[in-house]
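hey m, so remember when u said the tokens were messed up on ur end? i reran from scratch. heres the input so u can diff it against urs
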Amino acid sequence: MLARPDAYRCIECGLPYRAPSFSYYHGMLEEGPAYWTDRGILCSAQCSLAHHKKRRAEGTLPQEPAPDPFEVPSLLRR
């Protein structure tokens, strides 16, 4: 059986959602990603900080917290 490609990836480094080193909320895959933004999911604190620094430099920091990606499924489809 062929493994299916993972549609969900870190928007900073491209790490697939189910990769062993991906950070999950409460450490559980079923709980979803530990980090996310209005542009998608992030795999780690390091990618979260890198994304924040990039957005600050661009002047595109969000003005309010991003919605939970499991409540808004379209965020994960990027």
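this time it looks ok to me. The longest helix spans residues 45-58. if urs says something different then somethings off w ur setup not the seq
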